[in-house]
Amino acid sequence: xxxxxxxFDLGGTLMHYHDPHEDDPRHPFRRxxxxxxxxxxxxxxxxxxxxxxxxxxxxxxxxxxxxxYQAMQAERCGGSIEAPIRxxxxxxxxxxxxxxxxxxxxxxxxxxxxxxxxxxxxEATLAELRxxxxxxxxxxxxxxAADLHDRHLAxxxxxxxxxxxxxxxxxxxxxxxxxIFSSALELMDVxxxxxxxxxxxxxxxxxxxxxxxxxGILIRSPYQPTSINDYRPEAIxxxxxxxxxxxxxxxTATATTEK
Length: 259
Known about the structure:
This protein has 259 residues and is of the alpha/beta class. It is 45% helix and 13% strand. It contains nine helices and eight strands. A six-stranded parallel beta sheet has the order 5-4-1-6-7-8, sandwiched between helices. A two-stranded antiparallel sheet has the order 2-3. Helix 8 links the parallel strand 6 (195-199) and strand 7 (215-219).
């Protein structure tokens, strides 16, 4: 079937969420997470915590984040960082009333703004694909809230290109689980065979898309080591402008096969 829709991963594909000050590649967001907690705790205690209190609070929150993240990775479940943070706060006796959380959470996410950058040629690529008639959408694995990412997309002028956005923080499962791909396809009203997915990971993005019958396109990232192994992406691109010709080639191949 001919392609009607192109969906994208977010981090590493449309944008980079990369902290140049974090030295441990196993925990690429640990430093910025600590800044997020500090920003939040400053709002909870205007007079400040003692160093010992702060260490105790952060240890409790980190433990809850670690347990939550490990469970999510093991079971490919969705969810956001906010639940374990609030559980950690509760453990040390800091109870945040529901009515106060919406304002507090805005402070929680502010440090993440420091590590966001846009990929080369993204706006022009999305505009060209949209203008020739493709439906565009986004499926992202994220431990952060959807509205944070929507704000970043809006700030870079990309939000309107992507009317369908599915974030694992709001979903029961994350990529490569089939359900998150199916949710996006249903929202876009297209069949899997009519859609391609572009991402920077072969296991989560390419294989996840291919499992449900989509075409999987790999985009290389300077921050994500790429080992193809036994995976077979339908196309491999270096930067987003390369996607235009890659999609055209897929359409030509499909047309030839269907003759």
